[in-house]
Amino acid sequence: MNISEDLKEKLEKLERIIRGYGRLAVAFSGGVDSSLLLCIASNVLRENVIALMNKDAGVPERELAEAKAFCEERGIRLVFSNADPLEIESYRYNKADRCYHCKRAVFERLIDIAEMYGINEVAEGSNTDDVGDYRPGMQAVSELGIKSPLREAGLSKKDIREISKALGLPTYDKPSYACLASRFAYGEEITKEKLVMIDRAEQFLIDLGFREERVRLHGDVARIEVNPSYIEEIASEEIRTKICERFKEIGFTYVSLDLNGYRTGSMNDAIGKSPGMS
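Request: output the structure for the sequence above.
Response:
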């Protein structure tokens, strides 16, 4: 495999960590990180690994389809869980610690399913870049004893993409993904209907060729984020007209374009600000 010696050492460490589990259930989202983790776990543990994925309104249909195809191509057993975060008040009313309550409920269900298959270890795909960011969900991961082998092996997002490319994984250049609930302004009630609206709006942008995008929800306003290099294109009369027409069909009253461009965790900018602050 054509990777640096440093990456080879990290990959070997990851394989040793995974081999030590004996049997493993991987919390799988179909994203860059969990796809590499699942691939390596399957290579090391063979039939002693399963993929677990929660199926709820916060997961886009395209992600479910891609995850299913990834596992089918590699002969990996994929088991869906059915924890519904919308039943959790702190999630539904989108408090700042929403992710903690969601992760806690989902991983508790994944642990139960893993035990049904005789597996005592569940792993998730966070990497070293996730340390220090505002990620309340990581607290739930820690409390429940969920393993984080990519972080333990010292792998960054860049490392994961490089190894994924060397292995020929289709996810190596996949844009970063977060659940659709992350598109809501804190305090905005999360509903299945709104999640579907965001999913349809983002899929429309992807179909137009904007791979790195987000549609953030602020009441009846859709705030579009795209890579800054695409701002001029998306603001052209032809494209913006198509977007406005489609978004209003979906159910948005207003459509705006964020001139800062796409950036992860932009909703966290408002944390700690009072209603009177801008």
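The first strand starts at residue 24 and ends at 27.
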